[in-house]
């Protein structure tokens, strides 16, 4: 009997990758808080989670192949999260849409969520190691 890491770890591996990517985007927003005309961006975790859930449920898509030489794209949905522009609550005079306090709050929440996913993955690995050792 083999252990499938994909089923054992669930979606938490992708969640860690997403959280790391979102941390970069939020840090970039904070770094450009004083840049004129900079537009704040963010990633939507709910849409990425829904996409991953649909793929896990067996939701596939089909493409029309008009030539036999075309490459089949079965199950190759985009794994990259789409960056979206944040709608400002009160845009500044220089058209910068970064709200520093909101960015710091989002960054802190993202860090807590990253730590939670990391802790859960760590406990799953400890459980797998325990099962392999027969403890």
From TrEMBL:
Its main location: other. The keyword Amino-acid biosynthesis does not apply. One of its GO terms (biological process) is bacterial-type flagellum-dependent swarming motility. It is found in: Bacterial flagellum basal body. Residues 11-39 form the Flagellar basal body rod protein N-terminal domain. Keywords: Bacterial flagellum, Cell projection, Cilium, Flagellum. The keyword Endoplasmic reticulum does not apply. GO terms for cellular component: bacterial-type flagellum basal body, rod. Pfam families: Flg_bb_rod. Belongs to the flagella basal body rod proteins family. The basal body constitutes a major portion of the flagellar organelle and consists of a number of rings mounted on a central rod. This is Flagellar basal body rod protein FlgB. It comes from Pseudomonas segetis.
């Amino acid at each position: 009997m083999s252990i499938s890491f994909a089923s054992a770890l669930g979606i938490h591996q992708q969640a860690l990758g997403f959280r790391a990517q979102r941390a970069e985007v939020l840090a970039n927003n904070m770094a450009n808080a004083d840049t004129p005309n900079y537009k704040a961006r963010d990633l939507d975790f709910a849409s990425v989670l829904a996409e991953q859930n649909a793929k896990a449920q067996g939701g596939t898509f089909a493409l029309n192949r008009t030539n036999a030489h075309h490459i089949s794209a079965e199950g190759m949905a985009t794994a990259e999260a789409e960056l979206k522009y944040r709608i400002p609550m009160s845009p500044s005079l220089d058209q910068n849409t970064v709200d520093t306090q909101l960015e710091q709050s989002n960054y802190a929440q993202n860090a807590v969520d990253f730590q939670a996913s990391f802790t859960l993955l760590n406990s799953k690995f400890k459980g797998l190691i325990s099962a392999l050792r027969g403890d």
